[in-house]
Amino acid sequence: MTESGTEMRVVVVYDPAGNIKSMATAPEGGAVPGMALAPGEELGTIDVPDLPHDLDPEETNKRLTAIAERHTVEPNDTRMRLRAKE
User: Fold this and answer.
1) Is a pLDDT exceeding 70 seen at residue 11?
2) Region of 10 on the Ramachandran plot (φ > 0 left; ψ -120 to 50 alpha; else beta)
3) CB atoms within 10 A of CB 14
4) C-alpha–C-alpha distance, residues 43 and 8, integer Å
5) Phi then psi for 65, rounded to 5 degrees?
6) What are the tens digits of pLDDT across the range 14-67?
7) Residue 32, phi then psi, degrees to nearest 5
8) Is 63 a domain residue?
9) What is the residue range of 55's domain?
């Protein structure tokens, strides 16, 4: 988490091209939610900026949906990150 406290750990299901199939919040140090994977999909975690911990569930879901529609994930050796769709 950043000093401002505006990052939330999110579990992401994505395909080989990095397209986000689903996202769910995961508490720091807590269990990762179980998510079903289709063939070829992978599971990872990512820190999402500007997603405060104190949002109500409806607003959190709305923001995660917007992120999934506008971004792909880019896994790398050190840390997965979001990349804006072109």
Assistant:
1) yes
2) beta
3) 24
4) 16
5) -60, -45
6) 999 999 999 988 766 665 667 789 999 998 888 887 788 788 889 999 999 999
7) -80, 130
8) yes
9) 7-78
Edge-first strand listing for the sheet containing 7-14: 20-25, 7-14, 42-49
84 within some domain:
no
DSSP 19: B
d(CA 16, CA 4): 33
Number of domains the chain contains: 1
> Cα separation of 11 and 66, whole Å?
15
Please, are residues 14 and 73 in contact by the beta-carbon 8 Å criterion? yes
Residue 85 lies in a domain: no
Those residues with Cβ within 8 angstroms of residue 63's Cβ, 6 or more apart along the chain or in another chain: 51, 55
For the chain, what is the largest distance between any 2 Cα atoms, rounded to a whole number of angstroms? 38
H/E stretch holding 63: helix 57-70
**Residue 69 domain-assigned?**
yes
